[in-house]
Amino acid sequence: MTEIQRQVVTAPRNERETIITYDRETETWHIYTDEPKHARKFEKYVSNPERKAYNVADQLIMLEGDIDNGTVNIREKVPLTDLQKKHLQDLHKKPWFLSNT
């Protein structure tokens, strides 16, 4: 059962953390994060969370639970050339539904 906390104060930026661990016996990944950006990102991968916390604006700020049928990949950011960056900027200037016109 999920423990849900409401009206929790967000942790200061210098104290936020995201911890992802792997249990070899059960072959499951476990996540704990009090970084709101990571909590929102990983929420869709945790179907039965152990704990969730929301701030006064009812935004998810903390998440803990097992990642369902998932794998965790860590990779470097791919450096982009100036031309690639400009191309991506141009793509985002035009709405997606007009991109083929």
Q: How does this structure look, described?
A:
- Strand 4 (51-54) and strand 5 form a beta hairpin.
- A five-stranded mixed beta sheet has the order 1-4-5-3-2.
- The protein has helices spanning 36-42, 82-93, and strands spanning 3-5, 18-23, 28-33, 51-54, 60-67.
- The protein has one domain (3-74).
- The protein has 101 residues and is of the alpha+beta class.
- It is built from two helices and five strands.
- The mean pLDDT is 90.
Can you describe this structure in just a few lines?
The protein contains 2 helices and 5 strands; from the N terminus they run E-E-E-H-E-E-H. The protein is of the alpha+beta class. Strands 1-4-5-3-2 form a 5-stranded mixed β-sheet.
Give short descriptive properties of this protein.
5 strands, five-stranded mixed beta sheet, extended, 101 residues, alpha+beta, 2 helices
Q: How are the secondary structure elements laid out?
A:
Blueprint: E1 3-5, E2 18-23, E3 28-33, H1 36-42, E4 51-54, E5 60-67, H2 82-93
